[in-house]
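Table S2 (continued). Query chain:
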Amino acid sequence: MRPLARLLQIHEGTPRGPSPTFERAHLLLAFITIGESGAIGRHALAAGLGIGEGAVRTVLKRLREESLVDVDASGCHLARGGGQVYHSLRKKLSPLVLVEPSKLTVGAAQVAICVRGSGRAVKGGIEQRDLAINVGAAGATTYVVHGTKFTIPGGSDDCERDFPGKAWTVLRKELNPSNGDAVILCGSEREDTARLGALSAALSLL
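Corresponding output:
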């Protein structure tokens, strides 16, 4: 199994019993947060994910069972096998970027992510919006990069021209998108929910 597929299929492998109190995006966000931080405590991880410590323990248990994460006195950190998966993930997903509130999507907190080479998988952005809303976000807008332009399938063929604003400069500088990439801008009233919504939407394009 490809390294990234291992991570993405953990949630589907949930054993019989009560439904987990977290989404697949929580697993991905936990893994990314651990990878970015180097080492992080369980309490801080729970706060960053916006879920309880009991749910975080289950998330960590699943990641440990797949030999992706270790937990010791220094905190939660990537296991040896997790490093390869994290490297594969970073080739496909950009870091999550906080963007100042704009009219490009809804919500006081807005977070963007770039999914490399996945523009063709975007139909109209409705699926990504709905997935973001399902985890508590206010909404999400998905753009496809054609050449050097941000476009909306079935809509604008040059969003910077049609919806001018400072956010485009941030998206270009921080995400460095290329032709064929998909860029998701997710909004919510809380940053943690916006981050989760952006990742949930991005999962549909992986």
